[in-house]
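debug: dumping io for the single-chain case to check the tokenizer round-trip. Nothing else runs in this session.
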Amino acid sequence: MFLTRQGSARHALAFACAATLAAFSLLPAQQIDALAAEVPVATPAPAAPAASSDSAAVASPDSATAANSVPAELPLTPSALDSAVASVALPANAKSVLYLGGGENSPWFHLGVLYAIEAYSVPVDSVVGTSWGALVGALWAKGVSPDNIQRILLDPDMATIFDALENGLYQEGSRQNASRPSIPVSETGVPSLRERFSIQLDSSGRLHRQLKPLSPDSSAIESALARLRLQESVLRHREGFRIPFATLGCDGVTGDSYESIFASLPVRGNDKSGEYCPYLALPLEDSPNEVAIIAVADPIRGTSGGPAWHRVIRDAALRTLGSQPGVIVRAHSLQDSSHNGWIQAGFSALESRLTQMSALGSRKADYAAKRIASVPWFKFKPVYDSLPPETHGPVKSYWNASDTGLVAPRNFAYGVSRFPSFDSVSFDMLSDGDVLVASKVLPTFDVAVGGFGSNAVGPNAYAELSFYYVDQMQIELSLSGFYGGRSYGFSPSIRVERLWSKDWGLSVRYDWNRMRPFESFVENQLAYKRVYAEDKSDIFASLYYRFEPRQSVSANFLFADRSVELESKIYGDEPYNYYPASQKIRYSFEMGDTASWFPLGGLAAHAEFGLTSVGYDFGFDEHVPSFYTFYADAAYSASPRPFVTLGAFAAFAMNKYHKDGYGYVYPESFEISALDNCIRPRVAATPWSTEWLNPDLASHHYGLVRLNAGLHYKGLGAWVYAAYVRDFEENPTASLGSDRFVLEPALRFAYKSINIYAGMSRIVDSDTFGDLKKFGDYDLFFRIGNY
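debug: decoded output
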């Protein structure tokens, strides 16, 4: 008969929960609150687990009789909720069972209860837990001290994760806030709006498009790490239970296994969490041999906050306490809502119920004798059995074997998520301690539209289409293009990462474009130096190897076909064609923020050495003798205050070849001054100085020192760049002396890829240095985008 009645109660409870959840999903929050008072709840909570051999037996399902349901309507009075006790006289040798339930702050409240139990040596013969009570109760039953349990929850990693779980589960409006639309601005690159989506087939063979975030979903990653940390907190203690323990689920006791404990926690993916049902851990009946110590984390007089669904479940469960047999350990009210405040509330609540535990007699428990050490897992061992063969290698390569503790899965999760095709990352710690790593991979597309421009090149519309997928390696295919009134171009590219291993990569790009600035922009130069337009048809290839996260070396190849339009009155109407080709080895060291112009704190160094040859066609084929190229730079930036950034940069470049009888000399001239400047390295003195070719900032041999400072707040800032350029070649087409100075004050607004930069710039030499004070002679500029 008991089994029949118990099964009926389970079905009734399941039906009630399903009806409740369906109702609040369709009704406004006000109506949900009204329904909370009308939902009947059956609580088929079984008796505690059997005690160990040195303790007398406690109540079990075999000895249970009636009480299969609870009246739907119970008076919500302080006396009914605060002073329920066992309804029959207990023998002097009665055994105690500690029941730990759920609730937003239940871990801290239960800690306070455990502190009081140990302080007053209250004997506990077995423990039953659900939701957070399952975690705290299981750790304590294994012999972990309350101090160490608190250290687990307040660990620098765990504290952040635990807060994220609370905010995600209990805060009103968290689901709505997550679904609010946002402006899909590209994170980097040309200013643009971007949509990212994946394509997948369902079981019927239909294609579905799924939108994806443009940046890694940190909330999902933190949730995955939370699961792993919570799993680790249980599995780090491999010893058996010192005190018998059982997890309580909606359908009764689910055992004491690691899987049942974790399944009861209110984390993402646990649809049968004890937080939803039964919420409270309660005994089934008034056992003649049991003192039920029932810890309830919700105070009698407290706020009824949280989302509507949680209030419905909580209030319905709390209404059953009025007729519940046992000692109810519950705070009357709470003044301090901090973690310490909840711990103190739990301690005081149990302390005030000590007189109701007289049936336990004079027994005292020595919990110090049952202590075990609590040492975090030093190194996780990942397994990838759930991954398909085509993604096994790339996913595995993200795990750094030298990382320890939670650093390893954290670096892995954020590393994997940076590649758009990886849709999700999850961790599942198995009972043997191995971590099962899973990652869903889907073909992913990016579509972007935007624009860029300046008062030099005019406005230009921009579009981009990218495709990402994983098949033994990470592959990115991209096609971008722009069009303006004077300029246009397109650029297909392919990038392959984790080519042979995680450290190898290959990229190939083809640039076909025409750039033509306004004539007014170049008219301040002498006619024989002017370059009115430049056409490019360039193939660039790079094979790189990253031998540690901050250092890499690459082999770069350029094969170009270019032509320029010069002053027709001097050089004629036909464009001049030239064909540069180069092979270079490049070394890079980058640490921290190493953005080209506006880093906020980092260190970078680069060195490049190679060979360049230039062919040309001025009615006949000819070429400039091949010459060696060398380039090196170093940059440092720091932000001593969040709104202040200081930076320093130094660079050196030299192009030379060996000429018999003369030694090493600079490359030969085309005998066309404007074209000579096209093959000279351009000096990146300031952000604006790279906009178009400037003879005063082009040299086969130069040194550069640059300082910059910026005051900024939330993307808006004022910046000043000051540079000194030494022209060792003494470029004959330059209008200034060999010692040149550049000053560029400007304002900048930056939000993701949107970059607006406006100010004024001036170049002088040592003879005209005083002209820097003549602000009327500065060149004014305005630019949108980094391009």
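debug: round-trip ok. The chain is about 20% helix and 35% strand.
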